[in-house]
Amino acid sequence: MGKEELPGREIRIGIIGTGFVARGLTLLIREDARYTVSKVLTRRPVDGRENYNLAVEGSQLTNSVDELIENSELVIECSGDPVYVTEPLARILDAGLPVVTMDAELHVTTGSWLARRGHITEAVGDQPGSLALLREEALEMGFKPLVLGNIKGFLNHNPTLEDMEYWSRRNGISLTQVTSFTDGTKLQVEQALVANGLGATIAKDGLNGFECVELADGARRLAEIADKIQAPISDYVLSPTSPPGVFIVATHHPDQASYLKYYKLGEGPYYILVRPFHLCHLELLSTVKRTLRGDDPLLNNSLTPQISVTTIAKRELKAGEVLPRGIGSFDVRGEAVKIADHPDHVPIGLLSGAVVRRNIEPGEEITFGDVDLPDSLALEAWQAIRKEVLNRGKDIADLAAD
Fold it and tell me: Can you identify the CATH homologous superfamily of domain 11-125+281-292?
């Protein structure tokens, strides 16, 4: 397939997931002559008893990964369940199909392991992909990014079930989604992916997340931290008055200072670039197009991740309890951490069907010694990632000692 244009026919796209994003995608693709939805992979019954509210025929629904592979030239994954989707994605990548995702949770859990198997990329539309695109544009203009930032308007680490049910109904998204957005887990996951995929780090466990009325105030404080540690950082601001988008704080060569002042970016040395929106599935097809052109992945978790998202108890957990899920639950939330500093942490994306071994207090980090996890390919993948990261850190420490 050439770099310049797509084939003059409909390209068959498979989709994994039947939730909010998948529904919007099927509606969008229905109106786009370049693409057609071939199959939609779901775990739910496909016998007509379920109402999926998708813009597809019943015959396009399938429970078979093989059928998805056989009928697709590219797969879009938006399930939000790393434990479930790791196995089908491994098979899809092994079959040589490229994968476009809107699933930061997958990337920070098993994405680095999957990236060794084939082409997998996060899409523009969610904040990480939007930040990757903004960074790409900033580098083209000669900027040197210091902060890769997310704009958050509201945060409550321990929301009530009643409140989350209300917002779930009002916004038309699942209870788990709205809970993970509100308690900050989704944000922590996104910024971990940004750090790993775009060559940044984090300045502290759980990020800084400065509260500010004006975006510029919080953004400049983050830039000062990045300057101090001499490394670009992934972080966020909590600013209810700012747009729901992403931003970069960067420096530029002093020779450009007068031009940047004229272009309304201020006196410097810190310049703030803002992408004031992220339109999720509406932007996703731009990443599909660049993938089909043969471009490199826009963003994935990299082959050498440094950051993960650990699991923090929201409430007292009793020995013997079963935790159905981690992300979007009322039991736990996620915080971005350096893997080397938290070698035994349980990534929140793996916490599915976990059995608690001991009583755990609110605010405690959950380690592999605290829970029993069901066997899964996702767990095996994480163990391989963890071993490689820790071994690489040991090798670096040994070289420094020599």
Answer: NAD(P)-binding Rossmann-like Domain (3.40.50.720)
Q: Report the alpha-carbon distance of residue 14 to residue 35 in Å, rounded.
A: 10
330-353 pLDDT, tens digit each: 999 999 999 999 999 999 999 999
Class level of CATH domain 307-401: alpha beta
Question: How many C-beta neighbours within 10 Å does residue 174 have?
Answer: 14
Q: What is the mean pLDDT of residues 316-327?
A: 97
Distance between CA atoms of residues 346 and 378, nearest Å: 12
Burial of 75 (0-12, 13-18, 19+ CB in 10 A): buried
Would the pTM count as exceeding 0.70? yes
Regarding beta strands 120-122 and 210-211, do their DSSP bridges make them parallel or antiparallel, or are they unpaired? unpaired
The Cα–Cα gap between 317 and 332 comes to: 9
Angle between helices 82-94 and 377-401 (to 10 degrees): 80
- Angstrom distance (rounded) from CA 373 to CA 328: 18
**Which residue reads 């990757």 in tokens?**
132
Looking at the chain, which residues constitute the CATH 3.90.1210.10 domain(s)? 307-401
Do 7 and 65 contact (CB within 8 A), yes or no?
no
Q: How far is Cα 349 from Cα 346, in angstroms, rounded to an integer?
A: 8
- 3-state secondary structure at position 184: coil
Angle at 336 between CA 251 and CA 196, to 5 degrees: 55
DSSP lists the bridge partners of residue 32 as: none
Max CA pair span of the chain: 66
Compute, in degrees rounded to 10, the torsion defined by CA atoms 306, 99, 135, 276.
-110
**61 vs 57: CA distance, rounded Å:** 7
Looking at residue 378, its amino acid is A
Do the Cβ atoms of 252 and 271 come closer than 8 Å? yes
Which residue in the block uniquely carries the two structure tokens 């397939």?
1
Tell me: the pLDDT tens digits for 232-269?
A: 999 999 999 999 999 999 999 999 999 999 999 999 99
Rounded to whole angstroms, the Cα distance separating 330 from 160 reads 8
Outline which parts of the chain fall under CATH 3.40.50.720. Answer: 11-125+281-292
**The token pair that represents 253 in the structure block:** 């060569």
